[in-house]
Amino acid sequence: MLQVENVDLYYGASQALYGVNINAEPGQVTCILGRNGVGKTSLLRALSGHQSVQGGSMNWDGCSLNKMSASDRARLGIAYVPQGREIFSQLSVLENLKTGFAALPRSQRFIPDEIFTLFPVLKAMLKRRGGDLSGGQQQQLAIARALVTRPKLLMLDEPTEGIQPSIIKDIQQVIAQLRDRGEMAIVLVEQYLDFAYELADSYVVMDRGNVVLSGTGESMDKEQVRGYMTV
Ligand SMILES: Nc1ncnc2c1ncn2[C@@H]1O[C@H](COP(=O)(O)OP(=O)(O)OP(=O)(O)O)[C@@H](O)[C@H]1O
Ligand SMILES: [Mg+2]
Q1: Is the whole model's pTM more than 0.70, yes or no?
Q2: What is the domain extent for residue 70?
Q3: Which of 104, 110, 124, 171 lies 20 to 30 angstroms, CA to CA, from 230?
């Protein structure tokens, strides 16, 4: 499981995370909620190894991540679907998926069929350029690319941002299916409260770099959380 304790993160002199604590377990969706600029992406970038932290500890299955490179974390099974998707627009869908191979030993460098069961639309578009996909299809491609690495911890940064409702439903089903297999820990950053509420086994709410509220999904008081999410 993922254990994050007392994490501090600075950009120069400006502090973006203050003693953040979160846990995430296999078979569960842990939601990180909060309005713009509270530090959600900073936390995911710290966990994926794209931003260093100045205090606290991040452990995965008892192994310290603090000093590990992003590529070593990817090899451990930690995958990050960035905000804004960041797919390669000049590469084909298939080539985008293959970029996930870098985190895998040679014997596992193939695209599991189940990825096309989860995202049938991608199968029909393997030769299409990433940049020619709709926003929703690009988001599905970004999630599929992360799944190619066979993650044990999947982190998603606002997967519903700017995406049409029908594809949001599909993405919700995929996340629920991945969770229900019981093997993957999922950390979901969201500002779309209803979406997060449907999926959350547990949640934290962040405000100005601090965790200000946390609990189980079942015990979430939506209106209380909404109070932290509206400007
Ligand atoms: N590379 C950076 N350099 C300096 N400051 C940064 C950098 N990235 C983020 N920040 C600042 O850190 C704070 C947290 O930003 P972060 O992107 O983590 O928030 P967020 O919760 O993901 O916001 P959003 O919901 O808009 O994506 C903000 O004040 C932001 O301006
Ligand atoms: Mg963000």
Answers
A1: yes
A2: 2-229
A3: 171
CA of 113 to the centre of ligand 1 (A): 36
Nearest CA to ligand 1 atom 28: 37
**Beta bridge partners of residue 20, listed in sequence order:** 7
Q: Is 40 in the pocket of ligand 1 (CB under 6 A)?
A: yes
**Distance between CA atoms of 134 and 138, rounded to whole angstroms?**
6
Our answer on whether the CB atom of 41 is closer than 6 Å to any ligand 1 atom is yes
Residue whose tokens read 């015990």: 219
CATH for 103: 3.40.50.300
Q: Is the CB of 37 under 6 A from ligand 1?
A: yes
Quickly state the pLDDT bin for 127 (edges 50, 70, 90). Answer: very high
Ligand 1: atom nearest CA of 38 is 21
Total number of domains in the chain: 1
- The pLDDT mean for the chain works out to 96
| β-sheet with 78-81: strand ranges across | 78-81, 153-157, 185-190, 29-33, 202-207, 210-216
